[in-house]
Amino acid sequence: MSVETIAGVTIDVNEEGFMTDPGQWSPDVAVELARREGIEPLTDRHWEVIHFMRREFEEKGTGPSVRLLAKTSGVSIKELYTLFPKGPAKLAAKIAGIPKPRGCI
Amino acid sequence: MHRIVIVGGGTGGTLSANRLRKIYRPDEASITVIDENDQHVYQPGLLFVPFGMTHGEDIVRPRARQLRDGIDFLRCGVDHVDVERRCVVRADGVEMEYDVLIVATGSVLAPEETEGLTGPGWMERVFTFYDVPGATALHAALESFQGGRVVVNVVEMPIKCPVAPLEFAFLADWYFTERGIRDRVDLTYVTPLDAAFTKPVAAKHLGGMLAERHIELVTEFSTGEVDGEGGRLVSYDEREVPFDLAVVIPVHNGAGCVTRSPGLGDELGFISTDEHTLQTKVAPEIFAIGDATSLPISKAGSVTDFEGEVLVENVRRFLGDEPLDASYDGHANCFIETGFSKAMLIDFNYEVEPVPGHYPGPVGLPLMKESRFNHLGKLMFQWIYWHSLLPGRDIPGIHSEMPRRGKHLIEHDMKGAE
Q1: In this complex, do A62 and B267 lie within 8 Å of one another by their Cβ atoms?
Q2: What is the pTM assigned to this prediction?
């Protein structure tokens, strides 16, 4: 657990860099978090996924796995990997300011 | 008279039915288990089939014979559950009303969801050991294998028994060593996770064990295509892993009858269930157990057994208008076969990750450490499964709640320290 200042606000993050309080998130924070992961600029497609992740988290208490994300968001797995390389579910969750998806148990 | 219907006659359905029968006399409750076939597979045994340590016919028994007297077994498919009308609609069109429904339908393999997986080479050089035909065919392929690249690939989580693919890799190392051809085999473990396993301490330990055995570890590999003809796995981000023989664990979905039931499952067919009571979030009279749930815990027989204890008590409380017991803590334990007649044991729950120590108490089987005792424990477990776990007998010293005594928690129990 540590505290960081990013885009002018203070956020709490865990040892893997995931925000622990989704309430501290803002679009500006997302832009900065994405930049750190080498993703800039954030396109409309990125935002679609990011907002979808936050909605899923609010409703279900956890972000979706990549397969669930593809099945429910309408963005194909292939495109998700183009938008968020390596691990879309994990990376999109990180940028959306929600915990790492629990699907991977 | 209460009407209890249980869909699925596997581990969860069978042990729930048997435990409920002990609580209710036949004139107090009718208990009906419905399943489309009469083959109960001892699934932990599937791991040993490819290596010739057991055979398909030795791990399958009739479902009906595992049920206590006074439990009805119906061999029939289920089309769907009508949540609103509280009835199960069978494949033959007959409707069965229930006061309590227990969904114990497990998960199903969906190899067809991965491009190329069931195409050319399937069951020839591309196999899975997650069902009896696959494990049996893989045995023949391993016997005639003379050397080359073997990959073990988990396509995506969740899967049943998340440690089984690792065990397969460890056993393959042992098997090829015994046959004297280990130096002619390249073993590679390919996972979508960022480490060998999900839980940090165990992942580090298991990753080290792969390295010791010269098993290459490829992480964050999300399989987009299995090219059986060309002998390569291709990830969505266009990395490739070549193979001569691939052992693939396909993606898992919930059962078809759940997917076909409006409002019952999520997009993958798993059921949203209360983490501590096992009552579903779908309807108060519907409970779910084992692999059928979307709970954030391993899909494993030990989990199902520990859940069963709490679920059955809660069915009783629900029917008796009492508040439910929210005591299931996510307890799971698994023996991890590591080859050369040794095994490791891990024990954990929602909050405490697997750590070293002993189970079930300070004097017990060693945790997170390879030992011959654990290997014997794993072999003995098959007997316990048929004769104690399924009949719903309490196993002395083994409880639903995860024991903390015997575990080295101080430095590892991060949640507890917060």
Answers
A1: no
A2: 0.92
